[in-house]
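Quick illustration, no need to memorize.
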Amino acid sequence: MRNSRRKTLATTIALFLMFAMATLLVASPAVSAHDPPLEIASFAYIVPAPNPVGVNQPVSIVMWVDRPLPSAHVSRNDIRRHDYKLTITDPDGDTEVMEWPIVWDTTSIQYVVYTPAKVGIYTLLFEYAGQEYTWDGAFQNDIFLPDSKEVTLTVQEEPLPDATSSYPLPAEYWTRPIEGQNSDWWTISSNWLGPPSISGAGTSYGIPGGIQPDGIAPNSPHIMWSKPIQDGGVVGGSGYHVPGTTYYTGGSYNTRYSNALIMHGRLYYELPLGNSGGGGGWICVDLRTGEEIWYNELMGASGTGFSDPRFGYLYDYDMYNQHGIVPSNGWLFSNNFGDCYDPLTGRNMSLTLENVPSGTEVLGPAGEHLRYVWDREGQWLAQWNSSKVFNTQSSGTRDAGDEDNYDWNVSITLFPEGSRIQYAEPGKILLISNIASLYGSGFSTWGTIDPYTVGAVSLEPDSEGRLVFMEEYSAPAGSVSRNLVAWDPDNDVFIMMDEESLVHYGYSLSNGDLLWGPTDPANDYTYFRQTTMVAYGKAYFAGYGGVVYCYDTTSGDLLWTYGNGGEGNSTFSGLETAWGNYPVFVDVIADGKLYLATTEHSPGSPYYKNVKYRCINATTGEEIWTLMGWGTGMDAGCDVIADGYFAFLNCYDMQVYCVGKGPSDTTVTASPKVSVEGDNVLVEGTVIDIAAGTGQDEQAARFPDGVPAVSDASMGEWMEYVYMQKPKPTDVVGVEVVVYVLDPNANYYEVGRTTSDENGFFSCVFEPEVPGKYTVIAKFEGSESYWPSDAVTAINVEEAPQPTPTPTPVPQAPVETYFTVSTVAIIVAIAIVAFLILRRR
């Protein structure tokens, strides 16, 4: 119902945009008011739509007077039509009256939704009372005369068909742009705009990875494409400090691919230059194909004056004449809105914001950036809003520090020295603390301030700045470093961790009380580096110990662990590492899944073997898939997910990989083409992976007939073989293919079900039931790795020829019997003749 109303409103506004244009054309003439005052005729209009309509279905009623009042302006004045009245009389004569003392729409349009509850004819009377023009200008004191308009509305028993809210979600491979009527596709599509849109994005040094709140994420390690970011992997040859040494990957402090972004199905990332992690310009590639869209070598390069993009900005501008993301491509901004770039072309837009205030930044409801600016000494808190600085501009310089660019400014309670904003949830709550810890203050600090303070401040409308609580807590004994590591505002919890003992505590956001904890200590090795991330009402803790711990944020209960179990739940590394397990960090959280990466601070060359990216269920900890690959930086957290694709840098070979559901191609033949009823027909074909990566030089040379499609269960090892030069797996299982026929009698049914092999080949045999032409369809129904595909061929079955009938033999007496009977007959005849002769004598 809401979608229907919003669509009707949008249509109504579109129909009357001419009035908004008229507003701009009417200016105040530089003449005095009329004497005597003019009496200006008015023309009232009212339109109910749809008409007729079904009972209990919404009707949009639009009323207006012929044109805007002279000089009416959206933001500069309050020149508006006054005193509209709508009287609705139902079929039984009952009335309902609605009145509007002021019509705030400058075009004079008043809109209302009405739902009739009775069948029959309704009368709608719109009355404009008229008014005196009381504002300055040429029309001052002139009279706009009253007018009215009456129409009828027919309400029928039979309902009108529901409005189309969207077309179905895709059942085939899809790309950007998403056609504008496919509204529900927002549920499967997403962007990775960096901070603050993606919590934790583009960070490193002990800060958790990114959390994607939107869209879907891959359930399979199927590779779409790979693309080098620099030379990588084994150097080759001798003369180096260790056989098999590899190219430098950037390690912990020259991290490559550290702030990739995704907008509108385009992936943006910086190229390294020399030993540095960046400086080589920025490249934009198609997320699904890896095809280069643009490359800007000056962007972020030293000495050019152009900074690196830090975040994408998509602002949903919803005003009288404009609705939707503006400008049409959005923006790429460098840190603190310093430089602005067009995401489609990479061109600098010359849009500059000056005096942007410092503060804790979060995302607003329409894509705007909100910053909470706090002056502890002055005891005030303010909310800065980027959409008040600029919205539709594509160039120019704007002063961001002007007080008009703040939503509000309020007084706030004095917090202890050293306090800072830790977390903020727009419209809800803000958390402040003076706590310092190992990672909060550097490696030279141990222990915790005693006492330390944590407090919360309301951000609820009309209650901004109200103190929710402020509590002092005693420091843990023994120089233990306590840190505020995460929060869950949805469950009203903030979480502390003692870093040396690796235990967690949960506290109430409402009053600061301890809710649970301490938890049981985690694996000791996790102490060296660890992260805690919150999503879906759960806290995920991981690090060098190689085990992921999942806690319920409400109760603190340990729900599951991953990495310390058996097959499918093990990170055991044997002799490969000094840790016992492969270290694991939560790289990305998306679509109810955790994407884990293994990396290490300053790893040696060559790296450990058999390191993997891992995807596990965020609710159960169940392993979904694995794929070889070494993570980026010292704590991972640099990789990105959008539109169902996971794009990561594999430091084993320094290639960017994109993983997700890809297209497939099915072929089919049937033989013989013409057969005889009763004979079998052989159906053959292939199912091939046609993702863009299969056409790369290496893959195309190794698989001239195409890369075979394989099952989800075989996908990890198969992709490692196809793209990472690993041995060919010996137990590959292909995909299931179902063969259907449309027979001569127009009956459609299944005749075979089979599985393709490691070459993508499948076959089956069936016997046609009746003679005539058959259409043969081979269908691969798709999987988590591939979208479905099918192929069609035809055969003809002729009637079997009628067999030649065998003559029925005539029975005959044996030859001896024949002659015996004849002889006897002759003898008898002679005897009779002889008797007669003798008698005559």
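The chain has seven helices and 54 strands.
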